């Protein structure tokens, strides 16, 4: 017995010695939460095979990665195969539902089922991959998470019409919460393209034509999405789109070539991205277009020199869908997929959205020596960092019950109404037609967008429960109550000219005290439209007979006229003599010349989201005093384009047929109140990087109603070493004033606000004279003053 005990003690001592010597099985460093992220990444990279690394930077399409049977959701065979053969580390649009994905209200996922799906995906990935790496899930989140049952806010062009970054940050936080609770980690958005070409199909996804307004909105979205940290369980990483100059394609052709010089790139198109990067954005998406002959998805100068070395970006870069393959098939700068993959990753493009731009092509490029191990490891590390910093290795799952309870809650719906109300722009109000009297007894509501839920929601919107969306007709009925007769006739379609009920609409208008005509456009996708593999619609001339869609990705225009028989409908209703209020629901500026001359009141609502009907009714009946301002100029003619306000000197001159001015300028918007500006003060102190220009003024509400004013500060550089804009927005403030109340405003300009990109391609503050202009729009200047920089 003693001998056996001694042998047992010997084995125990040997085991302890082996453990202390490191021979015993220990937790891998990358799984130890106490270890710094950089060391965890290094450890994990050292354990990964080439194929596993490539899998981490290949983003597969996600909506086929689950199978649903009633209330049961499991991973699909397609996901099992993808994990086994491609070692995939990221999915995109797993919860997306729309005609392209063929996910409907019946086949798609409610928030609770979505949480079950992402949990199932994570569980399978962790338990069935060699290194137990969780999946990173990216979702479309531009104006709400693009999934069934989420809150739908106004599209970005409407968001920027609020001129209220604080409100947009609050909205972004709500979107992030809804996405994160369902298992998403990355939100695609904000879109920071300057929209200076209104024929382009994606104007609705932008914040308009101005770099400063876009910058403030982009910062707000990033801060709202990302909050105080990605481990919160309430936030998602923002992906900035589309890097860069994507919004000014020649001829308005989506994804087409752009003609932008280097100085213009730095002074106008890059500042919104730089501001959002400085706000902490964790991801950037490349654009489809090329710049000066170099495709954005293979542009080392943009992706590495500018984005990382100059701006200090430390997140990861992802391609737009299929844009790496586009180096071969569209731009023809690569002979084959292997060359394309090498060009992209060597330029600094970390992740491939599609799964076929990298994949076997990147493996092949690596084995042929076209991609160095350090380059591949760097790209993989950038993706892994997000996973570690979100805490996915420790907590990859979400609470199903919390997702079902919280997504599209009452507070978020109320916020959607608030954002929609703040976004509405009053373009015309002849004789104070608005707000409408509460004594009206008979109202005619007419038009193709008066009672169509999908037409008011914009592109990148999932299928909707009809009870969740309030149309204009429903909003008006709810506003006036049962004592007022509200009659409705559609009148015509957006595009279809084959049939219409114009005669019936005219009779309705004749017998009404006011006609509210709701026209415009639509980005509502349908199951009859064919889509490219990028998700963009494939436009056919025959689509006019089957679809309202005249805007949204792929639907570029050659004119900006109202389509179909809408103008005929409007003209005949105006001819009845009944007062007419025109409400516009649309995704881009349209030709409003006739309406501006003949209609009593015009309200621009863009795509106002699920609460749009209530918001519009609130403005029409004076419950809400309109205060939105245009983030993009509305031209009189396509022949004027481009017509953005901050064009380079010299100033434009008139054409033979029409003057050079837009119909409605950037920053324009009326109110039911009036505001008076006075007592401008400009004080300059400091020099160069310590320069400070303090601007003070008084604004008084001289109207009978409480209201919001948006004071805009524009700057003119009188003499400069390079050509500068005729004027440039630098600061703005939206604020509320009671009737009769006065407020002192203060703005501060610093050196960064006054710098230009000089002939030597450096940002410098040049001495000289400047003019400050303050007012209610780019063309409505109330106060002006000069100052000098020594």
UniProtKB/TrEMBL annotation:
<feature type="signal peptide">
    <location>
        <begin position="1"/>
        <end position="24"/>
    </location>
</feature>
<dbReference type="InterPro" id="IPR001764">
    <property type="entry name" value="Glyco_hydro_3_N"/>
</dbReference>
<protein>
    <submittedName>
        <fullName>Beta-glucosidase</fullName>
    </submittedName>
</protein>
<dbReference type="InterPro" id="IPR026891">
    <property type="entry name" value="Fn3-like"/>
</dbReference>
<keyword id="KW-0378">Hydrolase</keyword>
<dbReference type="Pfam" id="PF00933">
    <property type="entry name" value="Glyco_hydro_3"/>
</dbReference>
<dbReference type="Pfam" id="PF01915">
    <property type="entry name" value="Glyco_hydro_3_C"/>
</dbReference>
<keyword id="KW-0732">Signal</keyword>
<comment type="similarity">
    <text>Belongs to the glycosyl hydrolase 3 family.</text>
</comment>
<dbReference type="GO" id="GO:0009251">
    <property type="term" value="P:glucan catabolic process"/>
</dbReference>
<dbReference type="InterPro" id="IPR019800">
    <property type="entry name" value="Glyco_hydro_3_AS"/>
</dbReference>
<feature type="domain" description="Fibronectin type III-like">
    <location>
        <begin position="709"/>
        <end position="778"/>
    </location>
</feature>
<dbReference type="InterPro" id="IPR036881">
    <property type="entry name" value="Glyco_hydro_3_C_sf"/>
</dbReference>
<dbReference type="InterPro" id="IPR002772">
    <property type="entry name" value="Glyco_hydro_3_C"/>
</dbReference>
<dbReference type="InterPro" id="IPR051915">
    <property type="entry name" value="Cellulose_Degrad_GH3"/>
</dbReference>
<dbReference type="GO" id="GO:0008422">
    <property type="term" value="F:beta-glucosidase activity"/>
</dbReference>
<dbReference type="InterPro" id="IPR036962">
    <property type="entry name" value="Glyco_hydro_3_N_sf"/>
</dbReference>
<keyword id="KW-0326">Glycosidase</keyword>
<dbReference type="InterPro" id="IPR013783">
    <property type="entry name" value="Ig-like_fold"/>
</dbReference>
<dbReference type="InterPro" id="IPR017853">
    <property type="entry name" value="GH"/>
</dbReference>
<dbReference type="Pfam" id="PF14310">
    <property type="entry name" value="Fn3-like"/>
</dbReference>
């Amino acid at each position: 017995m003693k001998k056996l005990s001694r042998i047992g003690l010997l084995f125990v001592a040997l085991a302890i010695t082996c453990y202390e010597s490191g021979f015993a099985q220990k937790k891998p460093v990358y799984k130890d939460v106490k270890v710094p992220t950089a060391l965890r990444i290094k450890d994990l990279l050292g354990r990964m095979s080439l194929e596993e690394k490539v899998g981490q930077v290949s983003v597969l399409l996600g909506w086929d990665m689950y199978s649903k049977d009633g209330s049961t959701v499991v991973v699909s065979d397609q996901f099992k195969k993808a994990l086994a053969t491609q070692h995939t580390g990221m999915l995109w649009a797993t919860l997306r539902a729309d005609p392209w994905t063929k996910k409907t209200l019946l086949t798609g996922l409610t928030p609770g089922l979505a949480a079950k799906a992402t949990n199932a995906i994570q569980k399978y990935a962790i338990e069935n991959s060699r290194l137990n790496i969780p999946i990173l899930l990216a979702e479309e989140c531009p104006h709400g998470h693009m999934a069934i049952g989420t809150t739908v806010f106004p599209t970005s062009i409407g968001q920027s019409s609020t001129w209220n970054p604080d409100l947009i940050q609050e909205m972004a936080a709500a979107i992030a919460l809804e996405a994160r609770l369902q298992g998403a980690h990355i939100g695609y958005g904000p879109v920071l393209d300057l929209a200076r070409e209104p024929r382009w199909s994606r104007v609705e996804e932008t914040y308009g034509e101005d770099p400063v307004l876009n910058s403030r909105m982009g910062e707000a979205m990033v801060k709202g999405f990302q909050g105080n940290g990605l481990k919160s369980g309430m936030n998602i990483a923002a992906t900035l789109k589309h890097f860069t100059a994507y919004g000014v394609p020649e001829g308005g052709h989506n994804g087409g070539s752009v003609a932008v010089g280097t100085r213009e790139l730095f002074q106008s198109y890059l500042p919104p991205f730089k501001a959002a990067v400085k706000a902490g954005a964790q991801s950037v998406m490349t654009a489809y277009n090329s710049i000066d002959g170099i495709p954005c998805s293979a542009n080392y100068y943009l992706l590495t020199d500018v984005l990382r070395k100059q701006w200090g970006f430390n997140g990861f870069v992802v391609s737009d869908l299929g844009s790496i393959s586009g180096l071969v098939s569209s731009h023809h700068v690569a002979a084959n997929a292997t060359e394309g993959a090498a060009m992209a990753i060597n330029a600094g493009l970390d992740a491939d959205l599609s799964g076929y731009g990298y994949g076997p092509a990147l493996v092949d490029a690596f084995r042929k020596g076209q991609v160095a191990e350090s380059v591949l490891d760097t790209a993989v590390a950038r993706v892994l960092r997000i996973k570690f910093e979100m805490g996915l290795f420790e907590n990859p799952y979400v609470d199903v019950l919390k997702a079902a309870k919280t997504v599209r809650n009452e507070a978020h719906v109320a916020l959607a109404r608030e954002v929609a109300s703040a976004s509405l722009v009053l373009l015309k109000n002849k004789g104070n037609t608005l707000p409408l009297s509460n004594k009206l007894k008979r109202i005619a509501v007419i038009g193709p967008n008066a009672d169509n839920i999908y037409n008011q929601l914009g592109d990148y919107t999932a299928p909707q429960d009809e009870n969740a969306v309030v149309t204009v007709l429903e909003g008006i009925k709810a506003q006036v109550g049962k004592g007022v007769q509200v009659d409705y006739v559609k009148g015509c379609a957006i595009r279809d000219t084959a049939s219409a009920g114009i005669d019936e609409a005219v009779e309705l208008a004749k017998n009404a005290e006011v006609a509210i005509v709701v026209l415009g456009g639509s980005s509502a996708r349908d199951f009859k439209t064919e889509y490219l593999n990028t998700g963009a619609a494939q436009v056919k001339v025959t689509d006019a007979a089957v679809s309202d869609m005249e805007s949204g990705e792929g639907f570029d225009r050659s004119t900006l006229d109202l389509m179909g028989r809408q103008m005929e409908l409007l003209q005949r209703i105006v001819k009845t003599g009944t007062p007419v209020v025109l409400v516009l629901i649309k995704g881009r500026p349209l030709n409003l010349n006739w309406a501006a001359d003949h209609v009593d009141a015009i309200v621009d609502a863009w795509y106002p989201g699920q609460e749009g009907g209530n918001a519009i009714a609130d403005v029409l009946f004076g419950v809400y005093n309109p205060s939105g301002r245009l983030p993009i100029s509305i031209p009189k003619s396509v022949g004027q384009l481009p017509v953005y306000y901050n064009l380079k000197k010299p100033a434009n001159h008139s054409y033979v047929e029409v003057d050079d001015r837009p119909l409605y300028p950037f920053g324009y918007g009326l109110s039911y109140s009036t505001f008076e500006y006075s007592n401008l003060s400009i004080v300059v102190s400091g020099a160069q990087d310590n320069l400070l220009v303090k601007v003070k003024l008084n604004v008084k509400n001289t109207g009978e109603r409480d209201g919001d004013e948006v004071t805009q500060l524009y700057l003119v550089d009188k003499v400069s070493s390079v050509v500068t804009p005729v004027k440039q927005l630098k600061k703005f403030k939206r604020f509320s004033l009671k009737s009769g109340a006065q407020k002192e405003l203060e703005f501060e300009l610093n050196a960064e606000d006054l710098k230009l990109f000089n002939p030597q391609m450096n940002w410098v503050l040049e001495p000289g004279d400047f003019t400050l202009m303050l007012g209610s729009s780019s063309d409505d200047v109330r106060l002006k003053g000069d100052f000098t920089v020594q």
